[in-house]
């Protein structure tokens, strides 16, 4: 078919929309890849943070064991202080009566101070062990908070991945491409038949409106409309052979066949049909259009046929 019009602008628009679609597809692919990597990284962070929790809990257990051990030594140290103090008091009274030498009082005093120092050390050990328990508990809390934060990162990464996989933008670009292609198709006027341009009433760059006549096409294969009398078509049938003589080609007889007979007379199609009612003294013989086609072996390249030529036809009805 003959392409009459085309639009460079609409072609450029289609190319632009197609480029936008390709860009959106590439962005989606990159977003999915990046989102998948973010999810994997966030999940690895969750695993690392979760691994820190049992380590921190083990530190708490160890610190609590040290507290228990330090508290177990505290009663003995306290009892040693009480014994050393009692011994010091007895020795001090005996020294006052002269029954015990002064050196024994000094020894009892040193023993008491040593026992008191050991008791203080035991209390400090308990306090230090308790501080270790508190520090280890804080590490457990920090590890658990790290797990929660890492899980939040997984949720965020999964949200980004879902957004990257969302087809809304791609669907919008595909719809825009379809509309652009449809607009481009609207700029092309295609002839329903093959043929030749008889008349052209449009120029390049001219703006046309719907219903405007642009060109007149003449088909490649023409046919004959023979207006036979109504007294002649009674014996005619489709498929009957026809001899054709064209005034433009003297002495050449072409062959064809009856294709169809029009269902109404030529007068019926007139703007003001003649009224042959009862009472007319003269009866007018009507003409019936008969469509005749050339045989397929007709050499149109040697004998080109043009619409409007004068021909004579003879139909073989028997």
Describe, in plain words, how this protein is organized in 3D:
With 318 residues, the protein is α+β, with helices and mostly antiparallel strands. Helices cover 54% and strands 14% of the residues. The chain is built from three helices and seven strands; from the N terminus they run H-H-H-E-E-E-E-E-E-E. It has a five-stranded antiparallel sheet with strand order 3-6-5-4-7, with no helix packed on it. The protein has a two-stranded antiparallel sheet with strand order 1-2. Strand 4 and strand 5 form a beta hairpin. Helix 1 runs antiparallel to helix 2 and helix 1 packs antiparallel against helix 3. The longest helix has 90 residues. The protein starts with 7 loop residues before the first helix and ends with a strand. The N terminus is likely disordered.
In a nutshell, what does this entry contain?
The protein has helices at residues 8-97, 102-165, 168-186, and strands spanning 195-200, 215-219, 223-229, 241-246, 253-261, 287-294, 311-315. The longest helix has 90 residues, at 8-97.
Helix content: 40-55%
Largest sheet: 5 strands, antiparallel
Q: Tell me the strand order in the biggest sheet.
A: 3-6-5-4-7
Oligomer: single chain
Structural class estimated from helices and strands: alpha+beta
Number of helices: 3
Which overall shape is indicated by the principal axes computed on the Cα atoms? rod-shaped
**What portion of residues belong to β-strands?**
5-15%
Order of H and E elements: HHHEEEEEEE
Q: What value does the average pLDDT take?
A: 77
Q: Unreliable stretches, pLDDT < 50, 5 or more residues?
A: 1-5
SS elements, strand count: 7
Distance between the termini: 40 Å
Overall radius of gyration: 57 Å
């Amino acid at each position: 078919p003959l392409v009459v019009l085309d639009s460079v602008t609409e072609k450029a628009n289609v190319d632009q929309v197609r480029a936008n679609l390709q860009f959106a597809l590439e962005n989606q692919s990159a977003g999915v890849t990046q989102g998948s990597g973010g999810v994997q990284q966030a999940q690895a962070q969750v695993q690392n943070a979760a691994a820190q929790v049992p380590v921190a809990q083990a530190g708490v257990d160890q610190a609590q064991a040290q507290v228990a051990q330090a508290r177990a030594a505290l009663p003995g140290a306290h009892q040693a202080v009480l014994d050393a103090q009692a011994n010091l008091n007895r020795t001090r009274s005996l020294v006052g009566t002269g029954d015990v030498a002064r050196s024994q009082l000094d020894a009892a005093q040193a023993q008491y101070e040593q026992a008191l120092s050991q008791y203080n050390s035991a209390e400090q050990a308990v306090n230090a062990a308790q501080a270790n328990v508190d520090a280890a508990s804080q590490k457990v809390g920090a590890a658990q908070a790290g797990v929660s934060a890492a899980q939040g990162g997984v949720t965020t990464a999964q949200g980004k991945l879902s957004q990257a996989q969302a087809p809304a933008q791609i669907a919008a670009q595909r719809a825009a491409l379809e509309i652009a292609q449809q607009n481009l198709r609207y700029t092309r006027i295609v002839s329903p038949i093959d043929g030749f341009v008889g008349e052209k009433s449009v120029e390049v760059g001219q703006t046309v409106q719907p219903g405007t006549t642009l060109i007149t096409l003449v088909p490649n294969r023409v046919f004959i409309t023979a207006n036979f009398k109504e007294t002649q078509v009674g014996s005619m049938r489709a498929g009957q052979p026809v001899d054709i003589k064209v005034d433009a080609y003297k002495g050449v007889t072409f062959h064809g066949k009856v294709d169809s007979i029009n269902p109404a007379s030529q007068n019926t199609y007139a703007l003001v049909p003649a009224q042959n009612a009862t009472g007319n003294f003269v009866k007018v013989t009507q003409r019936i259009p008969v469509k005749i086609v050339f045989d397929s072996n007709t050499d149109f390249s040697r004998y080109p046929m043009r619409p409007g030529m004068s021909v004579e036809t003879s139909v073989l009805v028997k």
